[in-house]
Amino acid sequence: MASNEFALGIDIPQLTLMIEALQKVANRIFSGLVLAGLLVASAMLLPYHRSLGTGGFMLAGVLALIGAVVSFTMTRHTLGEEAPVAVDVARATG
Description:
By secondary structure, the chain is an all-alpha fold. The chain folds into two domains: 12-48; 49-94, no CATH class. Helix content is 67%, strand content 0%. The chain contains three helices and no strands. The chain has helices spanning 15-45, 53-79, 89-93. It is elongated, with a radius of gyration of 24 Å.
């Protein structure tokens, strides 16, 4: 042991699956915090009447949602993942 020849190895076979699951949980928590922040910020802006009014906030929300969906689909397409395909149950059962 004095010549640093002692070694200890730990093998965890499902470590990659656990890390992927933790990353999914972390992404969902972060997305929820961002959404909550947007809701609070929009609620704080509602008392101020601007030229667009409340309808402008709704329009901005709809445009942001459309932008998020478009960016999500572009990201999935860029990464090489295919969108899920609907299966016809009547045809699959024969």
